[in-house]
Write a structure and sequence with these properties.
Four copies of one chain form a homotetramer. Chain A has helices at about 10-25, 50-55, 110-120, 145-160, 170-180, 190-200, 215-230, 255-260, 270-275, 280-290, 315-335; strands at about 1-5, 25-30, 35-40, 60-65, 85, 90, 95-100, 125, 160-165, 180-185, 205-210, 235, 265-270, 295-300. Chain A is an alpha/beta fold and about 350 residues long. The first copy, chain A, folds into two domains: about 1-65, 2-Layer Sandwich (Alpha-Beta Plaits); about 85-335, Aldolase class I (TIM Barrel, Alpha-Beta Barrel). In chain A, the strands form three sheets. An eight-stranded parallel beta barrel of chain A has the order 7-8-9-10-11-12-13-14, surrounded by seven helices. In chain A, strands 2-3-1-4 form a four-stranded antiparallel beta sheet. In chain A, strands 5-6 form a two-stranded antiparallel ribbon. In chain A, strand 10, helix 6 (about 190-200) and strand 11 form a beta-alpha-beta unit. The interface of B and D includes residues 244, 254, 257, 260 and 284 of B.
Amino acid sequence: MIVEMRTGSPDEEVEGVVQRAKSLGFGVQLNLGTNKTVIAILGPNTGQLDTDIFAVLPGVESVTRIMKPYKLAAREFKGEDTKVAVNGVEIGGKRIAVMAGPCAIEGEKQLMAAAMVVKEAGACILRGGAYKPRTSPFSFQGLEEEGLVLLRQTKRQFDLPVVTEVVDPHEVSKVTKYADILQIGARNMQNYALLTEIGKTKCPVLLKRGLSATITEWLTAADYLLAGGNENIILCERGIRTFEDSTRFSMDIGSIAVLKRSSHLPVVVDPSHAAGHYSLVPSLAKAAIAAGADGLLIEVHPNPKEALVDGLQSLTPSDFSRLMKELKPIAEAIGRSI
Amino acid sequence: MIVEMRTGSPDEEVEGVVQRAKSLGFGVQLNLGTNKTVIAILGPNTGQLDTDIFAVLPGVESVTRIMKPYKLAAREFKGEDTKVAVNGVEIGGKRIAVMAGPCAIEGEKQLMAAAMVVKEAGACILRGGAYKPRTSPFSFQGLEEEGLVLLRQTKRQFDLPVVTEVVDPHEVSKVTKYADILQIGARNMQNYALLTEIGKTKCPVLLKRGLSATITEWLTAADYLLAGGNENIILCERGIRTFEDSTRFSMDIGSIAVLKRSSHLPVVVDPSHAAGHYSLVPSLAKAAIAAGADGLLIEVHPNPKEALVDGLQSLTPSDFSRLMKELKPIAEAIGRSI
Amino acid sequence: MIVEMRTGSPDEEVEGVVQRAKSLGFGVQLNLGTNKTVIAILGPNTGQLDTDIFAVLPGVESVTRIMKPYKLAAREFKGEDTKVAVNGVEIGGKRIAVMAGPCAIEGEKQLMAAAMVVKEAGACILRGGAYKPRTSPFSFQGLEEEGLVLLRQTKRQFDLPVVTEVVDPHEVSKVTKYADILQIGARNMQNYALLTEIGKTKCPVLLKRGLSATITEWLTAADYLLAGGNENIILCERGIRTFEDSTRFSMDIGSIAVLKRSSHLPVVVDPSHAAGHYSLVPSLAKAAIAAGADGLLIEVHPNPKEALVDGLQSLTPSDFSRLMKELKPIAEAIGRSI
Amino acid sequence: MIVEMRTGSPDEEVEGVVQRAKSLGFGVQLNLGTNKTVIAILGPNTGQLDTDIFAVLPGVESVTRIMKPYKLAAREFKGEDTKVAVNGVEIGGKRIAVMAGPCAIEGEKQLMAAAMVVKEAGACILRGGAYKPRTSPFSFQGLEEEGLVLLRQTKRQFDLPVVTEVVDPHEVSKVTKYADILQIGARNMQNYALLTEIGKTKCPVLLKRGLSATITEWLTAADYLLAGGNENIILCERGIRTFEDSTRFSMDIGSIAVLKRSSHLPVVVDPSHAAGHYSLVPSLAKAAIAAGADGLLIEVHPNPKEALVDGLQSLTPSDFSRLMKELKPIAEAIGRSI
């Protein structure tokens, strides 16, 4: 951590900063420039220190963090790539994992039809939401536990692990009974009550990036889960909020390479929510694979025209099958399989 | 809702849209341009309709919402201004309500000292957090129920209503016993499990705007509370996330006038979180009052240098007293009091 | 264009809108809802109409544009893909065009060395800046005309067409003598004096997207060039400004699919400026190809450690050669060549 | 400037950074942490150094700038406030300067009528555009030199200094003959050819903030003008581009306090472009004054319903007169006049 003093700041103010750093157990190195003093605060855990601790002291102009605020999710903490095992499917390995299915579970027939398409096209995990966080209270809110039951039934019939969202910290243990992967939605990325509860389980988690979360904040949210003892974390890029309005969100394709550099956790991409329109999904899915993503989360609906939620961004069965075929050579071109 | 068909879209496709609209009970008006057909979907509740319902149909180029997706929070739904009564203090009336106090409750001495400053300077509500959602799991997380007990004790001693945050839907009933106003934090604005639970109470709520929430989404979140039966909602602008990094967030000063036009709910402004630095708080606080805000939420700490949370954006007692004196003539200049 | 009247707006106000539309030669269709009147303004050129023309009239609540404000760049205006011919190289065809070279021309030796690398690795166009728009007046501003002379010399020696930036409308004719493609920088995307001047030439243009330009604004800027008579336009996505700061800009990978849908113009991607760091460039370059871009603009420097401008985002010769080899199978996987 | 080395970076790499710093004439201070070495680069002009110079060297993890990249516009460079004298009007002094008038000059009658309103209501500078940078080539582009002539005529008749935009570097000398203040539009904030030309004059300049420019970039653009020798610079906040779409731009009210802290230059605010709608302008104008702005730039049109440009954000004469009356007590409340 670097503390820049104001020009002409007197010795007592410099000393105040030095004393605070020492009282917290940190080392200190003074850098005396011609105009101003810059103080380096040294030690292994300066990343977890709040910058305010120094910024409030008299004479301080600015405080700059050098170490990242996340720790357990960092590549520096764990050198080798984390691979998350989900009922025989590995996420983060050589094979790219495609998770697909409807946004919301609407009923047995719909879910079964979706599962069949997903299985036949070669995806390895079924997605489906039972609890749906909706922006409007007047929208369909999901089938809740009834949906979970359908999900388990479908999972068994098709031998497909399932991923589903949990929204309430007090329902974590219930959902864990049905799901192979717990999804934390974008709007809950910093719902710490929920993160803390899920951190206590060992259940694999898909942690979606918040709409306006920086990568640093996202990895710090992952630290909540890791600090609780859950190491089975899969990150999911799903687009960020920007000024551009021709897509629903702006997929941050650069996050994939940044994460591979900064973290050991696997990364999957959700092109459906980023695009908001089915016609844009294939282009984003291909880009994600080429950029190095470890998997995809794609919305597929047996009949998007009748979907209760997010129909416009759902692929039809035939579009999904075609996309899976098109992804295969791209995966191979970068030395992976799908 | 306006449905634009593709250029040269055949009659069957137009008919498909018309039939879907009619099947949902809406009226339809065709607008035949020289190049393309535009279909208006008419009815009182088109705002609550998901645009996807039409966007997925064959031949549809775009769907544009005319009515807003929120309903109960809209000025059109309720013409007169909502005034929220909090233990004798009215929010949304002629007098501007200043809520002040520490970000986090750290102990009895600190809270008492803060309350005394707040009371003496003329603020009417005490703020203080017992449950602190922190970006890092390694940071101080709040005193929890012990903090609530201190808050109630201080409230009685100084005869000041109190506002405090609730983060877990299952703690709503507990927090309601201690708090006069429940705060929903920015990161929980779309935590629907929490909104639903608070909507069931009649307790006044301070609904902070999400970091990247549009005003429309914010008012739609308010609809969750209103739809549950809780009409005592106070909106709180606290800055949005943008590319600018010289302030912690960018305070959206324009939101005040937009809300006054679009909604009947009172609006307060939190200049402390928007600024991120104590030296910028007074300018933002004055601007908020001049722009028409109904109140302020300001962080004040008896000794910011020792604050466990957000010390840099907290005002000292003397800075807060000076600010209160400076705000008074501005309030009077626009025909209000403080 | 859709004009929404306020609830309860009287007939005279509706009539005012109708009369204005008719006076401008547009058709009008009234949509009488239960609560409010919505007026559709119909005609082939409503996209080029300013929404303010109706929004200022009494009783108008909102005005929504259905048609896009751009016209000549639209897919609806020209169905087939535009292919730009540049001295024997075609941009927008089956073969993906890679343009590479140093950000700034620093001298003969540097430019020659770069050209050799670019040529040998299989790129088809050489890039190099002679006029450098720099954020600081204290930074290197480019070799100016001396750089153009070097560029021409190198181009002849290596038989590589060249792309270079022009920043002043009065230098367009001069730069045209040296360049095969004129580059319009991101900060000049809405420099209309410059656009107008370049629109008068027939010289191929690389129109970079502005840092905070929507795709609609970008295509409207292209309309300036097209309206002037220059049809040889290549769009270049180079990242947009967002809150994320781990990359220099956020590459809007979604823009590629959106542009292919909305426009007939070819699209190339500049992963170097988007990334800001050489280690992230390959991932973005691969993603761009997989997403459907028609080309790439990549910064390559014989010795990035000594580069005067943008060294950090420049690839070394060996990194560039490796990337070109890695791009080849991806191009083939999507049915193209490189 | 702080250079963070990678964990375990060998001595040669550290030495490489040290050597480069020394070769550029800078001092160096090593900070040896337990895990990694951090190198402080010391000297008076490190702010003007490109971070890439060190970031490209082997073993470097990150480079952080401590000093700001702007110099001449900085408060540290010049302690006292700059006051710009414009034909007897002072901008940056105790009296708040209101500049008002139509967006575009449409003709003699319109400009005269606007000037009369502006003068009578107590504004001290007339604004009016002769060259209009328009997003669409199909929109009205301004009266150009004819407009300048009208502006001079009106200025003489009403004894009001005038501000008008210049868009082409080669027209600077011409526009200077007519204008008392040259306006640099938001889209030209980084048009360096234009900045350089205007920097050579002594004519007062209104430098609008770019749509997506950080405050740091804005002040660095001001450095271009200052470095050229023009010290008469007025900064103008006019809203930044964000995801919020209920206003045309998001007025960054925080920029006023930040600029007062970081720079000696006066700041005026344009609430009209930020709002995009006349009904929101008064709230923003009041906020700007309360926040500490030195002036306002407001669009006023004798008949907004017939305006050729930006009618929706223009105030009518009576709305403007009322606003001026409402601003007076706010100015007095903060110890200023208007």
